[in-house]
Amino acid sequence: LLGWGSQSSKVHIHHSTWLHFPGHNLRWILTFILLFVLVCEIAEGIVSDGVSESRHLHLYMPAGMAFLAAITSVVYYHNIETSNFPKLLIALLFYWTLAFITKTIKFVKFCDNGVGFSQLRFCLTGLLVVLYGMLLAVEINVIRVRRYVFFKTPKEVKPPEDLQDLGVRFLQPFVNLLSKGTYWWMNTFIKTAHKKPIDLKTIGKLPIAMRALTNYIRLNEAFEAQKNKRSSSPQGSRSIWRALCCAFGRPLLLSSTFRILADLLGFAGPLCISGIVHNVGKGNNTIRPQTKILGVFFISSQEFLSNAYVLAVLLFFALLLQRTFLQASYYVAIETGINLRGAI
């Protein structure tokens, strides 16, 4: 399916064919959360199975397969989006529907057998039901907006004007969310710069949104709106500040949000290390779960987090996410500063 999906489009795969389907960023965020929840489900199954006398592969093997399926789905989606061939997303629609139904059945079975919020497996299953349901809703929204599969006249969408100009090589606004967060799209440029000196032609043109004229027009419109809004208000630095906030406030707010998230994740490191030291100091890392339903043990969140290996994995993810948010905050702030200075 991956090969078929990437080669079935009549459009030659080039950076000018990169199009973001509706809900692009939401889909990637939900997929990242899904992968994290599935990792927690795998770990929960391994930890609870470790205290059992016999092995129960069904506690973590399905979660492992779902993890591989989630990775495959996002790779498949990237290929379909790159080639602008949304009809092939019908495979994902089918998969999200089946995953949502099966997880809902599992969740209902847990409720029927008295499993509640005190058991971590119940909470993880509920989260997976919500995530699969939201991914299914995103897929249905793509069908509705792009009008494919069930519609006779699909909606034709052209690439952004920047991507139609082969001289524009700054692709940060147009790549997928993972490439944005890791700046993966710059690898080709970095390799070229490593082999030979670069010039302005190699760097290419600026995107329209980052050009001084574009940002001047944006700032001027905001300033004129301030004058028209309150003609009696004194003009000066206050009006300029209001215009700046109106024109460039959203990206600065986004940068602040990323920084706050990074600072909050900074607390995870000391907490995880403290938990690891505490558990290692006790000399016994084996938990003793008390709840046994349907022949297998169900552990609570507290019992799950008392495992030093689990805390080590959580520490790794927390630090990785912290640095990602911190770098994103720097990038958005620097880019906004460039645009703001160009506008002034």
Structural summary, described in words:
A hairpin with a 2-residue loop joins strand 1 (291-293) and strand 2. A two-stranded antiparallel ribbon has the order 1-2. It is globular. With 344 residues, the chain is mainly alpha-helical. Helices cover 67% and strands 2% of the residues. It is built from 14 helices and two strands; from the N terminus they run H-H-H-H-H-H-H-H-H-H-H-H-E-E-H-H. Keywords: ATP-binding, Glycoprotein, Membrane, Nucleotide-binding, Repeat, Transmembrane, Transmembrane helix.
Quick recap of the structure?
The chain has 344 residues and is mainly alpha-helical. It has helices spanning 2-7, 24-50, 61-83, 90-112, 120-146, 161-164, 177-182, 187-195, 200-203, 212-229, 237-265, 268-282, 301-305, 308-343; strands spanning 291-293, 296-298. Among the domains are: 18-152; 240-341.
SSE layout:
Blueprint: H1 2-7, H2 24-50, H3 61-83, H4 90-112, H5 120-146, H6 161-164, H7 177-182, H8 187-195, H9 200-203, H10 212-229, H11 237-265, H12 268-282, E1 291-293, E2 296-298, H13 301-305, H14 308-343
Helix pairs in contact: 2-3, 2-5, 4-5, 10-11, 10-14, 11-14, 12-14
Key phrases:
14 helices, mainly alpha, two-stranded antiparallel sheet, 67% helix, 344 residues
The biggest sheet amounts to:
2 strands, antiparallel
Mean pLDDT: 84
- The helix count comes to 14
Counting helices, strands and paired strands, the structural category is mainly alpha
N-to-C series of helices and strands: HHHHHHHHHHHHEEHH
Net shape: globular
